Amino acid sequence: MNKSSYVLIALVALTLIAPALAMAESENEGSERSEAGERESGEHEGSAVNSNVSNLVLYVTLATIAGVGVVSAITVHKARRKATAKKLV
Amino acid sequence: MTLFSNILRPHLILLVLLLVPAAAYADDDNYGSAQALGWVAIGAGTVANVLFMVFNAVKKLPLLKIGMGSEMPRTMFAMYKPMLNFHIMLNSVGFFAGMSHGLLLLRGLDSISLSLAIVMTVSMVSGLVLKVASDRNSKFFGRLVHGQVVLSILLIALVVLHVSVMGADFD
User: Fold this and answer.
1) Rounded to whole angstroms, how far apart are CA atoms B36 and A32?
2) ipTM reported for the complex, 2 dp
3) CB contact under 8 A, A72 and B144
4) pTM
5) Strand, helix or coil at B148?
6) Which are the contacts of B159, defined by CB distance < 8 A and separation ≥ 6?
């Protein structure tokens, strides 16, 4: 493995760590705010609807990414099977 | 000297480019700078991807349309590697600027922003797999995921949603 690969692996690691850090940090912030939020409940009537819509966006995103992953994996598997069958003939 | 020119120089350029977001943040007004990082990410992503897509579209034009005796196909072939490096570097800058923007404005994190961060990460990781992987199957998988139109449409839609929702929230 040459030096450029090490640099790229470090970049991959950074890339993977960033969202996890963001999630962990947001959970901390969320728990801190939940206590204060309880006192302010009822102030924002439309916020529940907005939160439902944005949650829906998150679910659609996750479903799309999972779909893309599955479709790509199936395509790779099919191509590999075709190549193996050609080799045997 | 050879080590510097062959291995270190491209990565030094990349590292310098990765510091661009930090330069944008070095301002007195923290909120404005953090917000500017988001615009840096959007700008870098737009320039990097639109230019690369236009280049690929022109490269794929049939020879009859360009002219059989034209030097263009050879020039395009020679320019592909620099264009790809430019695409990678500018998108890396955009990605890290976007992530820094997200981390700095964590208080305003909602599901749309989180979705945007996830889609950006998937695109970045698939691009890195495509660049780094030596295994044929991984490379093929990376190319399929990275080139998905659905993922690009989702990314554009999420950027538009994020800008409109956050713009409305902070106005």
Assistant:
1) 27
2) 0.71
3) yes
4) 0.70
5) coil
6) B42, B45, B116
